[in-house]
Amino acid sequence: xxxxxxxxxxxxxxxxxxxxxxxxxxxxxxxxxxxxxxxxxxxxxxxxxxxxxxxxxxxxxxxxxxxxxxxxxxxxxxxxxxxxxxxxxxxxxxxxxxxxxxxxxxxxxxxxxxxxxxxxxxxxxxxxxxxxxxxxxxxxxxxxxxxxxxxxxxxxxxxxxxxxxxxxxxxxxxxxxxxxxxxxxxxxxxxxxxxxxxxxxxxxxxxxxxxxxxxxxxxxxxxxxxxxxxxxxxxxxxxxxxxxxxxxxxxxx
Length: 253
Description:
By secondary structure, this protein is mostly helical. It has helices at 26-50, 53-71, 77-87, 92-123, 126-154, 159-163, 183-199, 202-221, 227-249; strands spanning 6-10, 13-16.
């Protein structure tokens, strides 16, 4: 009777005897993969313990205050939307400023991170390079793909559409039903918060928070989003910012 090709040596190990001179252990790869995943998970939880949550929260504090102040006097989203729809024509200059703010934030962010990447290459600064790469990857995954999927799936009407009588339209491609969450808010948080997490200075974090608050308020003022949409953008943007910082600082002491 011929000898078996595999001989069981342990409950989760098989040892190859004659097919390959180097030997082949299928469970070795499973065990190695499991160990690598476990190491990565442990490293991520260690990162979360060391993450500067205080500075992260400082960048969100001004926007949280704005949302509270703006939303508190109104009993419904329709009432708030109607207020700003009526207010905007009486403030043409301020409306123009808010329009510039809401559209200029993203291009300025792109220029900033492109320059960051370029200076990182010139100075051989691994952190700057990884921060710029992490920014691009995470913004695509979260501020673009995740936000778009949520907008399409939830189908919440924007303020102007809600005032026109539109309701929720789940799984829709209509722009007027892509209110939740706010992509602009998510993007600006994913832009400035990782930098604040690196600098770790209270005044810098608060200054970054003011930028976030202005962009978030502009979306409400221009009747593009409700207060809840901005809050949703804060959550997505925060997740994006944490992962950007994790990638940029990975391997550093």
